[in-house]
Write a structure and sequence with these properties.
It is built from 15 helices and eight strands. Strand 6 and strand 7 form a beta hairpin. Helix 7 packs across helix 11.
Length: about 375
């Protein structure tokens, strides 16, 4: 071990050098602004090493690994538990983090250092939710390493996430939904080869299905004489394959008579593809990204009404179900929400209903309210 003063381009610094496991093992070099900081770091390392030796543990010291090594191990073990979309996001975040932070010791990622990363990310004008997702990946990696006893402990303990300001959920009022359906029904008339596009919108607004659930729907899922749809899969646009729904369980959603007739009208008498909505050229399920860009966004622009995302058709369905007095528990089941709090979020969207209540609900004093004077007089006389 050695601690010596050196001159760097940014001024004098104190350098600590030591080997992790004795002669010929990995050499560690750290720079500090003061000799006290350098000695404190070395004393801390010696104490950790001594404690690990006394405990008989096989846990490695922080200096024997890097954040990148721990992240790759975490990804190797945990990837199979992630959804394809989440896995894709995590891989993208790690590829962004590795060039700058990958070679750092896990011990470096204490709450103060994570707060510094927060500030750097916010300076790039990123949303709080985006920054939180990146920092949560770091925490997940190091928490997993500590749980698997690859490192002594997770240094992220005490870190506080940024407070997220949730954006209002966009949805259509009933009149918007009805005028949009009228527009696309005229654009894609019954009997035309593109009528299926209208049926997709009709299905989304009447059932609250997610996009992947719509593209994974099969005719065998139409149950109970056409009154119910059995939702048991979704089409994964990343892996181009079917998988379980987001909630990991199947559920039933209503299918009204109009929707049932439109779905059955799409059924081909021969060479029926596996899914109800499919590419006519190859029979494969619809690619949602292509549908959104080539159909939904163009239809919105031509219609000229309030612009929303395709996923907001689901929000619209849930909101209008509640507006039509369906009980919250039923709407929760239809939407496939695990937590009823998610369903309750739609209640605050019913601003028009509240204004309507203000115009129609009123309790007033009786016009011919009896006076109390006769009663008082009777009491006095009595």
């Amino acid at each position: 071990m050695s601690i010596k003063k050196i001159i760097t381009s940014i001024g004098p610094r104190w350098e600590v050098r030591y080997r992790i496991g004795g002669r010929d093992s990995k050499r560690v070099k750290r720079l500090f602004e003061t000799r006290r900081d350098a000695e404190s770091h070395y004393d801390d390392w010696r104490k950790r090493k001594r404690d690990l030796k006394l405990s008989g543990s096989t846990i490695r010291d922080f200096e024997e690994t890097t954040f990148e090594q721990e992240a790759k191990h975490w990804l190797l073990v945990q990837a199979k538990t992630f959804s394809p979309g989440h896995l894709k996001r995590v891989e993208r975040i790690l590829l962004e983090l590795f060039p700058r932070y990958g070679r750092l010791s896990p011990q470096k990622f204490h709450p103060g250092f994570l707060s510094t990363i927060q500030m750097e990310q916010l300076a790039l004008k990123l949303a709080h939710a985006t920054v939180n997702r990146k920092l949560e990946v770091i925490r997940a990696v190091l928490n997993f390493s500590a749980k698997q006893r690859r490192i002594p402990y997770s240094p992220t303990l005490g870190y506080t996430k940024l407070r997220e300001v949730r954006e209002d959920v966009s949805f259509w009022e009933r009149k918007d939904a009805e005028t949009f359906l009228a527009f696309v029904s005229e654009k894609y008339p019954a009997g035309s080869t593109k009528r299926w596009i209208y049926v997709v919108y009709l299905l989304a607004l009447n059932s609250g299905l997610r996009a992947g659930e719509i593209w994974g729907l099969k005719y065998e899922d139409i149950k109970q004489d056409g009154e119910v749809l059995h939702i048991q899969r979704q089409f994964d646009r990343v892996h181009r394959d079917f998988r379980t729904t987001k909630g990991k369980t199947s559920r039933l959603v209503p299918c009204n008579e109009n929707l049932f007739q439109e779905l059955m009208a799409l059924k081909r008498t021969e060479d029926q593809p596996e899914t109800i909505f499919s590419d006519r050229d190859n029979g494969n399920p619809i690619d949602h990204d292509n549908f959104r860009k080539r159909n939904f966004e163009m239809d919105l622009a031509e219609w000229g009404g309030k612009k929303i995302r395709f996923h907001d058709l689901r929000h619209t369905a849930a909101t209008l179900m509640i507006a039509d007095n369906l009980d919250i528990k039923t709407v929760q089941e239809i939407c496939g929400h695990k937590d009823i709090k998610t369903t309750l979020n739609y209640c605050h969207l019913l601003g028009e209903k509240i204004k309507q209540a203000a115009r129609t609900f009123s309790i007033k004093p009786s016009v011919a309210a009896p006076t109390t004077k006769p009663i008082l007089r009777l009491i006095k006389n009595g």
